[in-house]
From TrEMBL, chain A:
The keyword Transmembrane helix applies. SUPFAM superfamilies: MetI-like (SSF161098), P-loop containing nucleoside triphosphate hydrolases (SSF52540). It comes from the Bacteria. Pfam families: ABC_tran, BPD_transp_1. It comes from Paenibacillus cellulosilyticus. It is a multi-pass membrane protein. Residues 67-259 form the ABC transmembrane type-1 domain. Belongs to the binding-protein-dependent transport system permease family. The keyword Zinc-finger does not apply. This is ABC-type dipeptide/oligopeptide/nickel transport system ATPase component.
UniProtKB/TrEMBL annotation, chain B:
This is Peptide/nickel transport system permease protein. One of its GO terms (cellular component) is plasma membrane. Its main location: membrane. One of its GO terms (biological process) is transmembrane transport. Coiled coil: none annotated. It is found in: Cell membrane; Membrane. Residues 99-311 form the ABC transmembrane type-1 domain. Belongs to the binding-protein-dependent transport system permease family. It holds the Pfam family BPD_transp_1. Keywords: Membrane, Transmembrane, Transmembrane helix, Transport. SUPFAM superfamilies: MetI-like.
């Protein structure tokens, strides 16, 4: 079973209590909910636990019988709606012929707010509980039907379904055996939310006055109480309005808490609380040590899991160091940790860039991002904000220039260095090719003339020919500007070709010298043509 | 191509509502004749024999279904739904009298809830993950689940019944004796506060949930981390990068929420006896005033469709990926 958050536990308890009330309550109360035996508007007492209403009916009895009505309507309507969502979603996702019809029907029903649609139908059908259940059940399926359809459409492309089809599995068998288990969580959420909506809708419709005046439900009790002025002349609202209102409030909130879908996992990122970088006036730190990047006994934890085991190394000024390893070896985490992109509490040890501590206790780091060092991400297409022009994304990072003209001139100069024209500044990322975006990214990394560049698989997302070009450009620029480069890559031949030093990571651990020798020798056998 | 398909589905919805309006009361056991003549134990409205006969004649309920339908369609095209049974006045006039009041509270609630909801959602995403975000999220989730009329009722009991700060019901004091226009204005505002506040609270919660979830998603996008890596301050990251990217896919949903608000006004106006079209709809349902119902449902549907259309029309101007590229395929 899945683990529940504390808010979901509260939801379970509240729903459980109200269900108990609906089951046990009517047995406890001796009065019938509709009999008129007592005096009107009696306050709560031993014989009438919650008093009586305007015409002398026992409110406790009405409350517990109302619980049955309300929960019954909720469960039935949610059941019908859920079954329809699942059945039609599976059908539409699975059958190419039925899909257009079902999908456009769902779209049509989704255009109108469901309350309006239900009002139209309910006001003409009027009537009893079953009419209400059918109306609610038949009109509220489209939202989740579309979600289920979408997930079926993507599941259908997966291998195991294709294999089942290949072996001529019957459609019904594939649907129930292979696809249903995957949409389980979706179905559970749908049922709980429909349950909640049905209860709220029933209460709302009863409150407006739609429905059978003889049934007892919470919404009906509120309507009874609210439509008479006597309720508010005295304190009678305390026992006439508060109990059913509280009941509706509790059940809807409880179901909302229960139905909260699991939030998607947060990425392992530092908090968004940083001041903007600025160009430091004096930059004389680092004289005591010639290293651009110092990593000393650094360990990175994610929760209880250690991603990078204690490691130490340095990158010399103007030198090129490559961090090599398979995917999952912790090299990207290492690079992000060096630049200060992971939460402070998960890093132990000392990291210095240009003499500035990247992680400092209780105060922001003095390392100025993009001024002291720059960081290039794996995929240029994901690095640029898709709805902002390249120009604005340059200007906001530029700290050396103050006026707009200077910024523009400097940005153009940086673009020229990577063989891109001025017009790129006014374009959006989707208008440029992957290779052009990579070049623009390199230009962007140069604008503040940082001493250190960290590049995480800078060419990983490019096709082989462009890859070579961009890689050579990057190395050339780094050498021209005498920057220190920390390159993260799994491309060992390229790393061997350009690096002053190579560090191999395996499962978060740096290989010892002998291990590394052996690793490199094996790789050279794999790629003999690069051995130089 | 895609867009014309969308417009087609709006047209279908309109046709669907028009058909539903006409056929639903006629296909159900009993139908309008029964409703009008039957009365009996259900009879909420008392009618004399002469009235019944006049009504049957007036609504052509003795004609064939075919000619009734033609009559009905003609009425829709010309916006002539005939006379309202309970108001004894043309339906279009009755509705137009009430529209401004609904626009006042729905409009106010829309503006306020969009502003507050979006800001709160952004704030929450900024503090995500964390305790502030979590408690704000749970609170809003709870509020969004509560039916509108319960919120309205609670506000009414506290501010009008117990504290006497604000009027109980209506949109203005009848026969307010003052020549000063300011007094009239204050009077109207005082009456509108609670209904508008109720709608706002409900809608803030749903706007917040939309914005927060979208902003949290955007906050985890690589380009936001890249912006942080570029040394941009957190305020500018939120205001320039997260807000715009999160709000963009929400534009359509937000505009459609205004349609939800209008549907919700039926409940809220009933609680506060506020004389807008929502209250009118409730009266028409209870009084079985079919011509008025037809008119109201059609107007509300048209309003919602209009909102859909507006959303579709402005979206391309906001998204450069659609505006500039002819291919318009989103990565």
């Amino acid at each position: 079973m899945m683990r529940l958050s504390w808010s979901q536990r509260i939801g379970v308890i509240l729903v459980g209590l109200l269900v108990c009330l609906a089951i046990v309550g009517p047995m406890l109360s001796s009065q019938s909910p509709s009999s008129i035996e007592a005096d009107r508007l009696l306050p709560p007492s031993a014989s009438h636990w919650l008093g009586t209403n305007v015409i002398g009916q026992d409110i406790f009895s009405r409350l517990v019988h109302g619980a049955r009505t309300t929960l019954f309507i909720g469960v039935m309507a949610a059941g019908i709606s859920t079954v329809l969502s699942v059945a039609l979603g599976l059908l539409a996702g699975y059958s190419k012929r039925l899909d257009p019809i079902l999908n456009s029907l769902a779209n049509m029903l989704l255009v109108l707010p469901s309350l309006l649609l239900i009002l139209i139908v309910a006001s003409f059908t009027g009537g009893g509980n079953w009419q209400l259940i059918l109306t609610l059940g038949l009109l509220t399926w489209p939202g989740f039907m579309k979600l289920i359809r979408a997930s079926i459409l993507s599941l259908k492309e997966r291998e195991f379904i294709k294999a089942a089809q290949l072996y001529q599995g019957k459609t019904g068998y594939i649907l129930s055996r292979h696809l249903l288990p995957f949409i389980g969580p979706l179905v559970r959420t749908k049922f709980i939310l429909s349950f909640r909506d049905a209860i709220a809708m029933e209460a709302s419709l009863s409150f407006i006055g739609i429905g059978d005046p003889n049934t007892v439900s919470w919404g009906r009790m509120l309507q009874d109480a609210f439509s008479r002025t006597q309720t508010f002349m005295t304190n009678a609202w305390l026992w006439m309005i508060v109990p059913p209102a509280a009941a509706i409030l509790l059940i809807t909130v409880a179901l909302a808490l229960l139905g909260e879908s699991k939030s998607t996992g947060n990425r392992f990122t530092a908090k968004l609380r940083r001041k903007a970088s600025h160009a430091a006036a004096v930059n004389v730190v680092g004289t005591e040590d010639a290293s651009a990047v110092i990593v000393q006994d650094v360990q990175v934890m994610y929760g209880a899991k250690t991603i990078v085991q204690p490691i130490s190394f340095t990158v010399k000024q103007g030198g090129i160091t490559s961090l090599v390893g398979e995917s999952g070896s912790g090299k990207t985490t290492m690079a992000r940790a060096i630049y200060g992109l992971v939460p402070q509490q998960s890093v132990e040890g000392t990291i210095k860039i240009n003499g500035h501590d990247v992680y400092m206790q209780d105060e922001p780091s003095t390392m100025q991002r993009w001024v002291d060092a720059a960081y290039i991400f794996q995929d240029p297409r994901n690095s640029f904000n898709p709805i902002m022009t390249i120009g604005r994304q340059f200007y906001e990072a530029m700290k050396l220039q103050t006026t707009m003209e200077d910024k523009r001139a400097a940005a153009v100069a940086a673009l020229v260095e990577v063989q891109l024209g001025e017009h790129v500044l006014t374009q959006y990322p989707h208008q440029l090719s992957g290779g052009m975006l990579s070049r623009a990214l390199i230009a962007l990394a140069l604008v503040n003339k940082p001493k250190v560049l960290i590049a995480d698989e800078p060419t990983g997302a490019l096709d082989p020919i462009v890859k070579r070009e961009v890689f050579d450009l990057l190395v050339r620029k780094v050498k021209e500007h005498r920057m220190a480069l920390l390159l993260i890559t799994h491309d060992l031949p390229a790393a061997l070709h350009i690096s002053d030093e190579i560090i191999v990571l395996q499962e978060g651990r740096r290989l010892s010298n002998e291990q590394q020798e052996q690793y490199l020798r094996q790789s050279k056998q794999l790629y003999p043509h690069t051995a130089e | 191509m895609l867009r014309s398909k969308k417009y087609g589905s709006y047209l279908l919805v309109l046709v669907f509502v028009v058909l539903l309006n006409f056929w639903l009361p006629r296909l159900l056991p009993g139908g309008p004749v029964e409703y009008i003549t039957g009365g009996g134990e259900e009879g909420a409205v008392f009618l004399t024999e002469a009235q019944k006969a006049a009504m049957l004649e007036y609504y052509h309920l003795n004609d064939s279904l075919g000619s009734q339908f033609v009559q009905y369609l003609k009425g829709i095209v010309t916006f002539e739904f005939g006379l309202s049974i309970s108001h004894k006045a043309p339906v279009s006039e009755v509705i137009m009298d009430r529209v401004p009041w609904t626009l006042l509270i729905v409009g106010t609630a829309s503006v306020l809830s969009i502003l507050i909801g979006l800001l709160a959602g952004l704030y929450s995403a900024w503090r995500h993950p964390g305790r502030t975000d979590r408690s704000l999220f749970i609170t809003m989730l709870g509020i969004s689940a509560i039916p509108e009329f319960l919120i309205g009722m609670t506000l009414l009991i506290f501010f009008a019944v117990k504290l006497h700060w604000l009027p109980l019901s209506g949109a203005k004091t009848a026969f307010l004796r003052s020549d000063d226009w300011l007094d009239h204005l204050i009077d109207i505002v005082r009456h509108a506060v609670l209904p508008a506040l109720t709608l706002t609270i409900e809608s803030v919660a749903s706007m917040y949930l939309l914005m927060r979830n979208e902003a949290v998603r955007v906050r985890n996008e690589p380009y936001v981390e890249f912006a942080a890596a570029k040394g941009i301050g957190s305020f500018r990251i939120v205001s320039e990068h997260i807000t715009r990217n999160a709000a963009l896919p929400l534009v359509t949903l937000i505009i459609l929420r205004i349609g939800f608000l209008m549907a919700g006004s039926v409940l809220v106006e009933t609680v506060f006896a506020y004389p807008g079209i929502g209250k009118l709809l409730q009266e028409a349902i209870l009084g079985r005033d079919y011509p008025l119902l037809h008119g109201l449902f059609l107007i509300m549907t048209l309003f919602v469709l209009l909102l859909n259309l507006i959303a579709d029309l402005i979206y391309p101007y906001l998204d450069p990926r659609i505006r500039t590229a002819g291919r318009g395929d989103r990565a």
